[in-house]
Design brief:
Lyase, Ornithine Decarboxylase, Chain A, domain 1, 8-stranded parallel beta barrel, alpha/beta, binds pyridoxal-5'-phosphate, globular
Length: 446
């Protein structure tokens, strides 16, 4: 009998692809290019890290949202939420598509004006409006959404002083089943405060009440909450008609639709759980058209959608700086983009993807480049073995990162727009020492 051949025992890791609680995906997702432009070409031309915005995605997503509402309600007007992403190039695309501007500060108001938005198409929200901001808003005929009684009295005072009427709405906070209620903003519906504010405005001859506004929160995954909010605004709309024989021009349901990002701690990916624009549109339009409001007197429906319209259009390209084993044996890597650029990494498990197929997937921690312990982009992500210099893509970063980023330790990087023809343009230039020389002064050295 022939002897079995001796084979020396050895250990090798089982490489079973990238299992997750949903089983084994056949293929690991890679992002090698954006709108047909290779990631490597973008980084070569504009550096790393690099924010990239896709005009095509902005227009496609906006088109989807608009269609969802336009097919269900007769009069819909979107107003672009500046604080979500106020790069001029981004705002201009929304304005070209027909969006008005929704701003929450004097700075954003000035930005909207400089982007060519007519003052009468600016919705001015927020708790912080200085006397000068209010005068600017009145002079430009903007829609001022009053946040609290002190602002209401200040407006009465100013409008008398400058002898000009102000077009106003009030922000209303209400119980739509979303907790905690954002009752720090606006006038409360349930305790009668909103009705009281409405009456005071109707009595003030220098204020013209044109609408009602609410913004129930952000990343709201229950479309039914919008139905409740819309019904409550509709009740006030009818109460105003009954008492004053007067129809307001609009009801504004604010922003807050969820994007496809996955919240930390969520069991299912956000792309599976986030309601569609159709779902939100169905809930809101149902509430309004089935309310007491006669159809010939339906108000214009304003929407201030931010995150859900821009998240998908933004990418952050980054480069691997180092691989490390932590003490406990866990694999980790350092990339050149950190929480200084990715404010939303505090809330989301952002999607990070290689640009080419790789194997040896293992649970990995992804650190940013900052010399600061909290600079973690992903605590734990099953990720293939990368090498120094490999490029990665972080997706769905179009909302709130480019406005909430901070200049900390590093210069902020280039932001590039890929236009509809596939051409690239720098829409915000990388900072340099000169950026700081312009605004810093040293009294000792003159
Ligand atoms: C931030 C904000 C928005 C946009 O909210 P999203 O959650 O990004 O849709 C709209 N309206 C107001 C008043 C806001 O403060």
């Amino acid at each position: 009998m022939e002897k079995f051949k001796y084979v020396k025992p050895g250990m090798s890791k089982i490489n079973a692809g990238m299992p997750s609680k949903f089983g084994l995906p056949v293929k690991q997702k890679i992002i090698s290019g954006i709108d047909g432009i290779p990631v490597s070409a973008l980084i070569e031309e504009y550096g790393s890290p690099l924010f990239v915005i896709s005009e095509k995605t902005i227009r496609d997503v906006y088109g989807e949202a608009k269609r969802a509402f336009d097919t269900r309600y007769p009069k819909v007007q979107f107003a672009w939420s500046y604080k979500t992403n106020y790069l001029d190039a981004v705002c201009s695309i929304f304005h070209e598509e027909g969006s008005w501007a929704e701003v929450v500060s004097g700075f954003e108001f000035e930005k909207a004006l400089s982007n060519g938005v007519n003052g009468s198409q600016i919705l001015f929200n927020g708790p912080e409006k200085s006397r000068d901001d209010l005068i600017m808003a009145i002079e430009n005929n903007a829609c001022i959404h009053i946040d609290h009684f002190d602002e209401l009295y200040l407006l009465i005072e100013i409008t008398r002083e400058i002898q000009k009427k102000a077009r106003v709405a009030i922000r209303i906070n209400l119980d739509a089943g979303i907790y905690p209620i954002w009752d720090r903003f606006g006038f409360n519906y349930e305790n009668g405060e909103a009705w009281n504010a409405i009456n005071r405005i109707m009595l003030a001859e220098s204020l013209e009440l044109i609408g009602l506004h609410t913004h129930i929160g952000t990343y709201i995954m229950a479309q039914a909450a919008y139905g409740i909010a819309a019904s409550k605004l509709a009740n006030l709309y009818m109460a105003i008609h009954r008492k004053f024989d007067y129809w307001l021009k609009y009801l504004d349901l604010g922003g807050g639709f969820a994007s496809k990002n996955t919240l930390k701690g969520a069991y299912m990916p956000g792309s599976e759980t986030c309601p569609s624009f159709d779902d939100y549109a169905e809930a809101i339009s149902n509430a309004l058209i089935s309310s007491e409001i006669p159809h010939e007197n339906l108000p214009v429906l304003f929407l201030e959608t931010g995150r859900a319209l821009i998240d998908d259009a933004g990418y952050l390209l980054t480069t691997v700086l180092a691989n490390k084993r932590l003490n406990g044996g866990r694999r980790s890597m350092v990339i050149d983009a950190g929480v200084n650029l990715l404010f939303t990494s505090f809330w989301y498990n952002l999607g990070v993807f290689p640009t080419k197929e790789m194997d040896h997937a293992e649970e990995t921690t992804i650190y940013g480049p900052l010399c600061m312990n909290i600079d973690v982009i992903r605590d734990a992500i099953v990720f293939p073995q990368v090498k120094t210099g490999d490029q990665l893509v972080i997706e769905r970063v179009g909302a709130y990162n480019i406005t909430q980023w901070m200049q900390f330790i590093n210069y902020r990087p280039n932001v590039v727009l890929i236009d509809n023809d596939g051409k690239t343009h720098i829409i915000r230039k990388k900072e340099s020492l000169a950026t700081f020389k312009k605004v810093e002064f040293d009294p000792k050295r003159g």
